Amino acid sequence: MIGKTLSHYKVLEKIGQGGMGEVYRAEDTNLSREVAIKVLPEQFTQDPQRLARFEREAKLLASLNHPNIAAIHSFEHADEVHFLVLELVPGETLAERVAKGPVPVEEALEVCRQIAEGVEAAHEKGVIHRDLKPANVKVTPEGKVKILDFGLAKAFEAEPPVTDISQSPTLTEEMTRAGVILGTAAYMSPEQAKGKPVDKRADIFAFGAVLYELLTGKRAFGGETITETLASILKSEPDWEKLPGNTPWNIRTLLRRCLHKETNRRLQHIGDVRIEIEEALTTPATGIPGATTAISAGTGWRQVMPWALVGVLAMATAILGLGLVRDLEPTPMPPVRFSITVPLEEQVVQGGWVALSDDGIQVAYVSRLDGIDRICIRALDEWESQCIAGTEGARDPFFSPDGRQIGFSGENFEGLKVIDLDTGTTTELADRSAMGASWHPDGDSIIFNRNFAQGLSRIPATGGTATILTTPDAEKELGHWWPQILPDGKTVIFSVYATPVDNARVAALRLDSREIVTLQSGALFGRYVDTGHLLFVRSDTLMAAPFDLESLEVTGPERAVLKDVFFNLNDGESAFAISRNGTLAYLPSAALRELVWVDLNGNEEKVSERRGAFRHPSLSPDGQEIAYQLLDQGKSEIWTYDIRRDNPSRFAAGDNPKLTPLWSPDGNHIVFQSEQLVWNLVWQSKDDRIEEPLVTNDQDQYPTSFSPDGRFLVYHEDNLDTELDIWILSIDDLQSELFLRTPFRESHGVVSSNGDLIAYQSDRDGRDEVYIQPFPSPGTDYKKVSIDGGVDPQWAPDGQTLFYRSSGLMMAVEFDADFVPGIPEVLFPDTYDIDEQWRLSYDIADDGRFLMVKTPPELVPKQINVILNWSEELKRLVPTNEP
Fold first, then answer.
1. Which has the closest alpha carbon to 631: 601, 579, 589?
2. How far apart, in Å, are the Cα atoms of 352 and each of 514, 562, 563, 836?
3. In this structure, what DSSP letter does residue 617 have?
4. 39: left (phi over 0), alpha (psi -120 to 50) or beta
5. Percent of the residues in the chain that have a pLDDT greater than 70, as a whole number
6. How many other CB atoms are found less than 10 A from the CB of residue 98?
7. In the 8-state DSSP scheme, what is residue 44?
8. In what order do the strands lie in the sheet with 769-774?
9. 514: exposed, middle or buried (C-beta count within 10 Å: 0-12, 13-18, 19+)?
10. What are the catalytic residues?
11. Which domains does the chain have, with CATH numbers?
12. How far is residue 619 from each of residues 81, 594, 623, 628, measured CA to CA in Å?
């Protein structure tokens, strides 16, 4: 072949050979440049169907144009030889580089960052490599990474078995039928090794194997034969101890997520891999005590603690050398800070609480994946979190004293439930649980808040009749929430919620006498610590004060001990927990959000570059302004935003929180919730900005829709017996009429554009589904619209289509002329913010676009911060022995 001219390509030398043919360096005499040509095996070209298929694949692959992908110039045929003309890439392959030994961490990450960029570009075009391995990646003398043979594995037939595993790209006879094995054995994903169909997640697995090999100099999955290697991929884990000591923690996590054997637990997008590597390159983890180190899917505290002990041991050694140890007290263990980071495709639910077992070994939190919330537990001496089956939709987890059971509030606050972590058995103790619960130290009972406006109750931990312990003062208090039973088992600390928040307080209940003692005014979410401190929150700041357990008195001045702790002004919930051994776990403050437009295909466009704590957007009738709730400096206010002028302005403020704005059809008023003792409805004119009451009683109301003519306001209202009912307010005389009350929970009523129908959600079938019925006359002629669950209905402008949300998807249902609903269709993945307490969370523009609230990917809550031995820092910051 050398010296021969194929078409206008003069073959100069052979530079490689593999399962996909021989590769030569050649000169393109037409363009005066050097290229690589890959000559197809003769047995391959003798199959016309396979050859035609390969030509089709080559045309697709030639469309890839990225600086990190070696280009395919053309597919040629000359002198009965079929060959590909490829970009000639100088430099050495990664296989050649790693043969010399492990690659330094920073260099390996930079190489793999470029690999990820190239793979990401190909995946966006629907092209999968299928044979990513060190031999198929070159690094030029200038440091530019080039991926070779992109996508070619799909089009080639197997070569006879070879003895060098790293050169075994194909292992079956027919390569594109379902059930084939493609790719090099040492870098195959488990699904490839099993002969199953593959997708882009196979490339992510191979990428992880390549990165591991660069860092360690060893293959992630070894074996002397192809069979042994495949068995290793299917059954074994890489030797994680071989990773260099300076490997960033997030990269350790990344490798585990890339190399997960189950595709649904593996990272789903190579772009997420690239982001993690970029973050590691710009802010590498140091492992230094006191720094916040990302420890995800696995860094146990036993691996972190030795670093924290280095300084202490060094000091102790010096002191011993001086013979002074007899005169010193034992040195306390210093605090050690790190973060538990959830997998890239998940997020921590900030309003879902965080809990610690009494021994400080287990952290429980609520994680959201594909729109579904569930409780996950991370043991601090384990690599990965375990999400608990049977806790879908759960919130507010809390541990039993022995750490073997978890209690939680069910979906939509339905049921106080307990799950046994050993057996997985779930027991429902009460039909309702709203604002927190705490397990008695003796393990025999649980104290909880049954419903928002109620007090605390006590129920046996095995089930039975609940006993009411406290009753809120209806004229001053909204509820008794977030209890903590103290270690003596005789006292309960809880929040007395009121508005404005300055009227709220942390109180203590003596269980024997039922006496309630105020501990701290203007504070919420109180927690006792065995060091003799009372913790509580003011806005997003964790405060502490010396506290005497016997007298139930604060004995010294309060001081701020931690900033930026998650706090929900609407319900007084914070997200921190401290164990008996002094470990603190907490969620950082709420992330900033963006307002975005989303079309029916899921294409997204920012409304503006502004970010803020936005919630509950409502679009004005002319489409020119957006009303929204904004948390600003600890207050919840209503703001408007002029889209054309890019101009936000405060609309409704004051000491009382304001939520859930809704424009009137004429655009002259905005209705919203204003909290006094309960959430009552008010509205305010754009002109005079004076707050006027609409509905005033002792129940919470939530506005959801106007009739198109503006005559009626639809809202739902709390009811202790039926939970939520739908009401209609006549704007003319401000008289309310009950529209829908059943034994079930009905909410989110929205009127169609012609005013003849109302859509709403109800749990009459055991879970929330979307229904429609005539409007404004109530009746029993309802139709079910959703099939597999549905919430938050909104009508399209034409009134012929209804949208709703369902398990992380935005759905659409079209109606025929008789308004019979069709089959629900998926519009796009619904990764946007959703309110979990019965409030509107998106709107629809006249052009059919969705107005949504989005947390930017880089700000999505991903971590739980942990401080081991934080009690020592607390004692230093807030001494208990001050006069």
1. 589
2. 30, 20, 20, 10
3. E
4. beta
5. 86
6. 20
7. H
8. 746-751, 757-762, 769-774, 783-784
9. exposed
10. 131
11. 5-87 (3.30.200.20), 92-282 (1.10.510.10), 293-590+862-877 (2.120.10.30), 594-859 (2.120.10.30)
12. 65, 15, 6, 9
Distance CA 566, CA 305 (A): 26
CA distance 611 to 632: 12
**Residue 249: pLDDT over 80:** yes
Over the stretch 21-33, which tens digit does the pLDDT of each residue have? 788 999 998 888 9
CB 412 within 8 A of CB 745: yes
- Which H or E run contains 806? strand 801-806
Other C-beta atoms closer than 10 Å to the C-beta of 59 total: 12
Give tens-digit pLDDT for 615-638: 899 999 999 999 999 876 667 899
Dihedral through CA 442, CA 489, CA 467, CA 680, nearest 10? -120
CA distance 290 to 310: 13
What is residue 171's predicted lDDT score, i.e. its pLDDT? 38
At 314, is the secondary structure helix, strand, or coil? helix
Mean pLDDT, the chain, rounded, equals 84
CA–CA distances in Å: residue 144 to residues 93, 117, 125, 138 = 12, 12, 22, 8
Q: Which residues pair with 794 in a beta bridge?
A: 803
Q: Is 719 a residue whose pLDDT tops 50?
A: yes
**H or E element, residue 55:** helix 48-62
pLDDT band (50, 70, 90) for residue 837? low
603: tokens are: 């294409």
Q: Which tokens is 33 given?
A: 């440049």
Each residue's pLDDT tens digit, 559-592: 999 988 888 776 778 889 999 889 999 988 766 7
The residues near 345 (Cβ < 8 Å, ≥ 6 apart) are: 267, 268, 269, 272, 369
Mean pLDDT across 177-190:
58
* Helix, strand, or coil (residue 389): coil
Question: What residues contact 450, with CB distance under 8 A and at least 6 apart?
Answer: 416, 430, 432, 433, 434, 457, 466
Q: Which of 93-107, 177-191, 598-612, 782-796 has the lowest mean pLDDT?
A: 177-191
Q: Is-contact 586 629, C-beta < 8 A?
A: no
Residue 348 pLDDT exceeds 90: no
The rounded distance, in Å, linking the Cα atoms of 118 and 124 is 10
Sign of the C-alpha dihedral, residues 235, 241, 242, 247?
positive
Instruction: Indicate the angle between helix axes 249-258 and 270-282, nearest 10 degrees.
Output: 170
